[in-house]
Amino acid sequence: MAMKIGRPVFRALGEHPAGGEADWVASDCQLGGRHIEQGLRENGKTAAQLAHPLTLLRLAYGL
Fold first, then answer.
1. No. of H helices and E strands in the chain?
2. In sequence order, what E strands does 1-63 have?
3. Longest dimension (CA), the chain
4. How many domains does the chain divide into?
5. What is the mean pLDDT of the chain?
6. Domain that holds residue 42
7. 31: CB partners within 8 A, 6+ apart
8. CA–CA separation, 57 vs 10, rounded Å?
9. Do 25 and 52 contact (CB within 8 A), yes or no?
């Protein structure tokens, strides 16, 4: 069911100018992030690294 609900997200990522090849997937919900990661893989896209949004902020600011 969750994968069905997530299809519009996977489709939008595939239509992104970068071609759906994201470096990172960020979600405040771990399960939601895993579903996005799985949906990308099932659609033949490179699996991106999964992280919480605050982790990405920490990395961006070198903290």
1. 3, 2
2. 24-26, 49-51
3. 38
4. 1
5. 81
6. 2-60
7. 2
8. 24
9. no
Tell me the C-alpha distance between 24 and 4, whole Å.
22
Residue 51 has pLDDT above 80, yes or no: yes
Paired residues of 24 in beta bridges: 49
* Most confident segment among 6-10, 40-44, 49-53, 59-63: 59-63
For the question of whether the overall pTM of this predicted structure is more than 0.90, the answer is no
3-state secondary structure of 6: helix
Decide if 23 contacts 55 (C-beta within 8 A). no
The DSSP symbol for 63 reads -
Q: What one-character DSSP code corresponds to residue 19?
A: T
**pLDDT tens-digit series, residues 12-25:** 777 766 665 678 88
